[in-house]
Specification:
Blueprint: H1 10-17, E1 23-27, H2 28-35, H3 41-45, H4 58-65, E2 68-74, E3 79-84, H5 91-94, H6 109-114, H7 130-138
Antiparallel strand pairs: 1-3, 2-3
Helix pairs in contact: 1-4
Length: 139
């Protein structure tokens, strides 16, 4: 699991993955709406904050993981463009919603997702309803 999977910037990764266009122009306000949080002051003051260096910050990893790079950063206009640098992901990824309550959880499949949520306290070979079991036995 990548560090972005559990980061507050995961909604940006998911949003970009759902885009079919190779260039996605966004205002800083749109980025904040997707993230559901304000950008740090350094994002609005320093162009380097938007660099594509994966060691820069966690948000950089979010757009890189989605297969995009930032470009045309306009600090005065508070906007930028994300350009696709990786192939468009499979259609299964497009179904993933950035607003999903489960977006930060790892994708483990049905049984992995439910692991630990159901605990047996009895004999699973016994009927759940003793009256029904008697009716079947008497039947």
């Amino acid at each position: 699991m990548s560090a972005v999977s559990s980061s507050k910037y995961r909604p940006l990764t998911l949003h970009l993955r759902t885009q079919r266009a190779n260039r996605v122009a966004m205002s800083f306000a749109e980025v904040e709406r997707v993230l559901r949080t304000k950008l740090p002051p350094s994002a609005c003051a320093h162009r380097a904050w938007w660099s594509n260096n994966p060691n820069n910050n966690m948000m950089t990893k979010a757009w890189l993981e989605a297969g995009f790079q930032s470009e045309q950063v306009d600090l005065e206009g508070r906007k930028l463009v994300f350009r696709r640098v990786a192939p468009i992901p499979s259609s299964a990824t497009f179904a993933e919603s950035p607003q999903s309550n489960f977006s930060a959880a790892p994708k483990l499949g049905l049984f992995g997702w439910l692991r630990g949520t159901v605990v047996s306290t009895g004999d699973l070979t016994e009927p759940a309803d003793p009256d029904w079991a008697r009716r079947v036995a008497d039947g």
